[in-house]
Amino acid sequence: MKGFTKIATAVAAALSAVMVLPAAAQDAQDRQEAHGDFYIGANSGFGWLDTDRVAIMDGQVREYEGGTDVFLMGLEAGYRIFDNWELRVSYTDLAADVDDFGSSANGESYGGDLIYNMSPNFYTGLGITRVKLGGYDTKFYKGTFGYRNFIDNNWAFRWEANLQQNETNLTEVMTTVGLQYFFGSTGQETKPTPAPQRAQPRPAPQPAAAPVDSDNDGVPNSRDACPNTPATYSVDEEGCVIYTNETLTETLLVEFEINSSQIRSGATSDIRDMADFMKEHPQLDIVIEGHTDYTGDDDYNQWLSERRAEAVANSLVNNFGIARSRVSSKGYGEQRPKVEGTSAEARQTNRRIEAKLSVTNRVPVIED
Q1: Domain OmpA-like, which positions (predicted)?
Q2: Which among 114, 124, 128 has a CA at the least distance from the CA of 166?
Q3: Domain 246-364: which CATH class?
């Protein structure tokens, strides 16, 4: 019952911590894709020691007070090695209350964890920690459950509960809250909307004493509103060039392997073609849209589609020289399948990013 009571207490603390998060945390979820891969952090909390644990104080064996009898302050550093896996190391100072004793037992712990991000906010992990406290040096195996929410592109709040047990069945529970700072933010700035340009007035027609057609367009100068038009261009009754609209379109489609946001080597030429099109038309911006197939959890698919869109956006910027302010990305998860069906071919088609740019140019009509 002792281990069960500690686990139940930790779960209750976890629910309380999640319920008191500010409403603004929902807005931070849109920034999850902007964080970097390396982070450092600081944390503080408390814990419950096993009732069988004792301390050696002034040469005597003493028991701890019980309850929330240990206070924690620590530092940590982590690195994301894959899309949803990360490694973390930590160091913690400990102070535990000793029963009927005038001072606390001080100590330290350090260890490492392998963390798995189940969703953009929740994670779990396994690790090993070494605790030096009250004259004893003990190795524990540790299980972790935590919640992380990004405040902005670099700073994140996290809450965490740890259950640790050694080979002699000492079972202890710790809970902490902390702040983490992520290096290498990839957040994008919003490009301001340019002010509309004022239309240039047409030049006044040149007066002529006699019906003279100086530019040989078939309209005399007396009513030619657009003098000096090229002879090969078709003109209207006022002598101005007749234009037609010509639309140019460039489409980008990149497919991905299942559960992967890594761009296939064969897709590089398609991304280069889109980059060349954007360089030819610098007035255009692009939105990269990421999609997944229907397999997997909704939250995971949403997160994976955002990573895919971000991968292609970063390739345009980092590999082909497109300005960051012209490129943005958005994930739709499994909400917008390209084809219906459950076959392997249909799922492959739906694991993709898409982007489409069109530009309409006014071109003069050439006379036959």
Answers
A1: 243-361
A2: 128
A3: alpha beta
